[in-house]
Amino acid sequence: MINLSKITRNGKAFYLAYDQGMELSPSVFDDESVDPQKILEIAIDGNFTGVIFQKGIAEKYYSNTEFVQKVPLILKLNGKTNLVNPRDPYSPQICSVEEAISIGASAVGYTVYVGSSHESQMFSEFSKIEQEAHSKDIPLIGWMYLKGPGTLGKEVGELTAYAARLGLEMGADIIKIKYPGSEESLRWAVESAGKTKVVVSGGIKANEKEFLNEAQTVIDAGCIGMAVGRNIWQAENPTRIANELKDIIWQ
Ligand code: FBP
Hints:
Radius of gyration: 17 Å
Number of domains: 1
Helix content: 40-55%
Strand order of the largest sheet: 1-2-3-4-5-6-7-8
Bound molecules: 1,6-di-O-phosphono-beta-D-fructofuranose
Mean pLDDT: 98
Largest sheet: 8 strands, parallel, barrel
Strand content: 15-25%
Number of strands: 8
Number of helices: 11
CATH topology: TIM Barrel
Distance between the termini: 26 Å
Structural class: alpha/beta
Shape: globular
Order of helices and strands: EHHEHHEHEHEHEHEHEHH
CATH superfamily: Aldolase class I
């Protein structure tokens, strides 16, 4: 088993996601959140157990700075825009494990679109990353997202459990999934993931109370934490919501 202590605290995880500039476009930012430096400040004030960047931002704002000692870096190794083929996505690898380590990453991440017809390409990239990351004791986080023609007409709860199981079988140490809509479905996904730990993503900015209620359900279902972006840095007071979320995760 790969040691997760660099990116967890007492077995729990709290990640600040900031790859949305590439994935969704800068339209999700305001004058503050468009600045990666501000995100690093939130990550430290909020005592996150990791910040998630693509390599360009990590190189320019994290590598060789004071932040290296203060918050662990999780580097996304693949990425795509939302401009191309949204119904059958493929997110190509754009950074190697070696490069991630040289930038200062404590863990690496890769998105698999479960249900995409590009499955074989993603499996092949994922398995090479898994082999290299684990040979260097670097944890691998699988973003296991349901997108593509194979998901059409299927039930989200069962598909989420399938995605979770896939993460286990492919060798992910942690998987990041979307909330499937009920505690029962999420609990089944966590069971399906076995010894692979589960975190849930934040999604679009929601009402704070509803978001925190969902976070409680996530923890009750057996997840080790959350990987959140927009619900933190789009909030009026990011540190306050981060603290409330932290209380739920480490209750
Ligand atoms: P959020 O908390 O902002 O949803 O971030 C989580 C995340 O997985 C990001 O890492 C990624 O950029 C984004 O969601 C993808 O969103 P979508 O699935 O809507 O394209």
